[in-house]
Amino acid sequence: QSYCHRLQHDMYFLTSTSRLNEQVVDKIVLQLNRVYPQILTNEEAEKFRNPKASLHTRLSDLLKHLQKKGDRHCQEFYRALQINAEQLFNDLPSRKILKTPDPTEIDTDKEQYMLNDRGPVFFLACFSVAAGLALFWYCCNSETQVIGRARRILGFSPIIIGRHVRNICLLYLEDMSRN
């Protein structure tokens, strides 16, 4: 986006009340007049610093004048604005548009929260199911002789596993030991 288009987009923001005070506008005009390359001639600088005209009128005329002159002049205005009123420069609507990320880009922080939004209870429940399945698979393996040890572990776990689940597990282990 060219600086002239940005300036046209920011014109209402800059000319609204109490955005720029008279001292800042004078500093910007002087900088555009005195710094190389000279953007404003001495006559133009005097015109835009005239205290008889209202600040709103002078600033509007200055911005329109810079837009007519071209992109380089608008760019120098933005540089002067950044030097003399950095907070206002950072709050410009065109700067906010430039700072917004690409809408097709994935926000990794947001994606991380979306994947982990279930919390620790969900994780513990999934882990418990996986551990229970692993224990059953290990106990059902005919090559291992740990059914007695598994029965002791399940017998001492009424707090960890519910009473009904524990009874089902013990019945299953007894059936396995008979076979």
Question: Mind describing the biggest β-sheet?
Answer: none
What fold name stands as the CATH topology of the domain at 3-97? Death Domain, Fas
**Low-pLDDT stretches:** 106-113
Shape: rod-shaped
Helix segment tally: 11
Oligomerization status of the protein chains: single chain
CATH architecture of the domain at 3-97: Orthogonal Bundle
CATH fourth-tier homologous superfamily of the domain at 3-97: Death Domain, Fas
Distance between the termini: 79 Å
**Strand tally, please?**
0
What is the SS-derived class?
mainly alpha
Strand content: under 5%
CATH C-level name of the domain at 3-97: Mainly Alpha
Average pLDDT confidence is: 78
Helix/strand order? HHHHHHHHHHH
Radius of gyration: 37 Å
Q: How much helix, percentage-wise, in residues?
A: over 70%
Subunit structure: Associates with BCL10 by CARD-CARD interaction.
Pfam family, one: CARD
Domain CARD: 38-96
Organism: Sylvia atricapilla (blackcap)
